[in-house]
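Submission sheet (multi-component)
Chains listed below:
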Amino acid sequence: MSRYFFYNVILVSLLNLMLFVPYLLIQYRYKGAIMSMLCAAIVGTALALLFMHVMKTFPGKGLPEILRLFMPKPLTIPILIVCAVMWLTASSITMYAFSVLINRFFNPDTSSLVVLVFMCLVCMYAATRSTLTVIFVLEVGLIVCVPIIVFLLFKAFNSPMLDWDAIRTVSHYWNRGPQVKPFAASLFVFTGYMNFFMFNRLNSPNFRLRFRWGTPIFCSLILLTSFFIPIGFHGTEGAADYLYIWSVTSDTLIMSYGFIERVIFVFLLMYLMLSLIFAMIGWHMGMEMIKSCLPEKKEAIDPARTPRSNWVIVGLFAVLTVAYAYWFNEKENLKITSHWIVLRACVEIVSVLFVFVLSLFGSGKRKKLVSHENTSHNAASPDGA
Amino acid sequence: MLNRIGTLFAESRDLTLDRLQNDSLIIEVAYISTLCDESKVSDFILVPFTKQEHPFEDLVKRNPSFKRLDDPAKWGDTLLHGFVLLQLNGMVYKLDAARIIRNENPQTMVETVIMGPQISLSEDLIDSINIVRSRYPSEELAVEERTVGTISKTRMLLVYDKHRVDATVLGLIRAKLERISDPFYTATGELVRSLGDRYRLFPSMMVTERPDRVCSAIEDGKVIVLLQGSMFAIILPSTFFDFLHAVDDDYDSFWMTRAMITLRYFAVVLTITLPALYVAIMSYNPELFRVQLTFSIAGSRSAVPYPSFVEVFIMLFMIESLIEASVRLPKYIGSTATTVGGLILGQAAQQAGLVSSIMIIVTSVVAISNFVIPVNNMSTAIRFLKYPLIVPAIFFGISGVTFGVFCYLVYLADLRSFGKPYFRIFGRRQSQSSDVGQVGR
Amino acid sequence: MKILRITLLALTALSFAATAGCGFRDIDKRFFVIAMGIDPADQGAKGYKITLRLAVPSPKVEPGAGNNQVVTMEATSIAEAVRLLKAHVDKEFDFGHCKLFAVGEKLARRDYTDILRWLTRRRDVQSIAYVAIGQPDAASILKVEPKSERYPGNTLFLMFGKDGTQSSYLVPVYLFDFIRRYREHGIDPVLPLIRADKDGYAITRLGVLNKSKLMETLTPGETETYSQIRNQDAKSTVAAVKNGNTMVINVDHIATHFKIANENGEYVLRLWLNVSGIFEEAPLGVYEEDWNQLEALFNQQIASEIKKLFKKMQQAAVDPFGFGLRYRATHPGTEQTWKDWQNLYPDLKFDIKVRVEIEGTGLVK
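Outcome: structure written.
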């Protein structure tokens, strides 16, 4: 079902706010942010299309299975670990950022570390579930949160306080050359498809992705929104002063007729939900990748009992996250994030191109693959459907 | 035969053992008189045997009501299920003469609808099957009989549509039924417990008395379990969304029923989160609401001497005991309890400054929205859910509530009802195009 | 599996225990600050005099039931003053509902920038709080206790908010808007001036500030013009005088737009103001007169008023309308653009085109 693909795309593109993407872009607003965004849109779309081809070539196979087709297991381990670390860091940074936000806006008297520990426990429980569960949670979460977030964005666009002159002023700086950091940051918005590195396991052989043109359009809109709306509300200069720019921006909106007057609380609660889902997916991805390095028999997609290895791996993730939050302060986190986002972009480009090349070779192997699939399917059918 | 049975039921005074003789034959008759309809015994056996209008031997052979029973080990069970044993020429026959005391044609009491069938399933299996078959006249309807309970040996029927039923689900159910080994089953609820994980927070099987619900479930390819002596059927597998779907939703005006379904989901969210939100907003984030609302809440709480969560627990204790009391009390005094508790106590507690008036509203909203859920076992399950959520609210405020809700969400999505996802949106239709996760099976 | 589950639960319980008690404070153990006044310290001392208006919630909700408590403290910094004030009250302050920050006029005329250091950093200060200048000082504004208040501070909330009165002389300014204008190149902050008026407030004037202090105060008429141009405020009137008779049109629809054009090397600001509405006050017989002439009269008088206002702003070297930002928005994005604007603003010419359309004369001729 293609809707699960779009859920991932939507989630990741909305989640850019938590990974300081708008912050990084706004820092470069006079120095090439717009060009970088344009380049990222082109590159991101191209990568997504390449990866869709990969998905079509290897239906029902996750990254580990694809790699296993072409190379011996020891070779796949480093690749998988690098990918797992990428997903782990994405989730951990999100969670750290949100624990700080909770400390700022909701519980000023509770230490952000305690909140983070609690968040980690919640996510540990969530991430150890089966892949199928994870994707159901994603679906429900998005169906609940996205309409409200879209409503808030709509409100923001309609607000008389939005200063279009400031937006126009910044857009006049479009002719500066693209830079690495804002490019990498905006590329993040387009990377939702990468969750299908693992979720592709769920896709059946006759999976067809429809409305794929929707991906770049939606992501570009989100990218433009998350860059320009804060500028419209805080001015060309003021926008660069804020660390958690979108939280402050959502505070500029008022729901005059609601129970809750300040939009910021609705906004933060919705994003808390999305961040938890994002962290859950990230950890789950990382966990599955590391698990596929272990010498174990092939896992069922939806096992009845949670394997113990899940708990161990995710527990390790949680400890790493808390340790990270313990050792690094907010400033260092921001700095690390801005470097990480560049590294992540590199890994994304390299890995997608790599898998794409494999899929080109794979078309020869495909026949073999299909026949193999059939035999295994027949073997499985007596106890199955 | 008689000796053998006599020793088997050594201390049963209601066991009737007779040796009869007419001109040509000697027969032995054994039955438990309390379980059997004596007129049936005399109509089928005693009268023809003594009148001798036809040779009794032929009669027994021709009448399909008499069935051969060769295994002496089954004699005891057969007698206990209300059969008459008849020995004729060294051969043993059984005759169903069970007399079952039950309520006649009961009306639906638990799950009422305005327009729709008013009659409920019967406590007798035969009548229930009659009701189901007459509503689902299809040759595909399969009825499997089993017994459950090592002592109770309660008769149980599995009913399903051969074509539509999911073979994996059916296999799982059969396997589970083989495994259960509790001694006694008197109500469907017990069977539900031993079939599922008893610690789970949400029911995975629907218990219903409504024949229309049963029939539409069969049509959906689900399996129905009927238990002798209980007028409730079990429908499995069930999803979360089935539980919030009342049968009226298919009978009444389309738009209003859609609105009611939406309302039910809101009600579920409210009844689960409201007490926790009250604690969180009172004690952590009073800036959440608009100014005017905050001040009126703060004003109403200003007389309350203890923290918000104590207040919540007091009121929830009161409302839960009120609900419990009105279930336990006879129908005629039930309403008195509600009046005393709801109106007088609530008003007085608020005036005495023990609870804030907002808390009274919260409690009533929680209780009322809980009653909106159409299926009773889901309603009770959800009644519990608000308590665990108060704990993170006490420690983390509004963000704690969100964490808790997220956990519930994951928990729900993680549940499987006999291998079927329990909480999958848009999962109802059986799509031809493949869905996620179907490769795994 | 079971052991793991139990350990996990135990861990959760432990983390609860670790946090137990901190941050838990009931709503009735908090003092809600509804307005904050910031004045310079008395007798020329360094620092600030902070006045807080605290809400005392009462269980009764009826007119006059809103109780307030006003506390004042002087200290060298705002944060210190707030901390000192805590020692004078029995409950914890909560700024989460602080809707008004009143800056004393003296402070505004001297230098207001320092207060932003506190306002921007505090997490519980709402971005959508209102900022205003208190005349003659902020403390006297906070001490006013309107008789009809149902909730403490409700008068202020209703006056500034959209659901109460909508006066065209009152231009509510949100904190974030104030900060934005303070930081932005090309637009300058404005703040409404509040006067205490027996048992209430009078808010009719607008103060125009530059990046550090109050420069100019607008008259009520000018304030209305400002809000017509900047906010396209349809709840306003336009007036003209003919033969000594004042004629007032109630605005139904208003639209303005402006652009900065280069004409023969000279920069001209062109402003179009389209107004339509019906007479609210006029001598009998306007129905028979030539409406075109009347409209022309309105056009000319309004245009001259606007021009006067623009000139006043130009002379004070402030730009509350955001002409500079519009210039930046329509010219290439370079550093030079902003510098150019700073040079050309003092010599900017104004070309104002007003088009009033009379839709009717009300109920009588």
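Remark: Chain B has three domains: 2-96, 125-238, 249-421.
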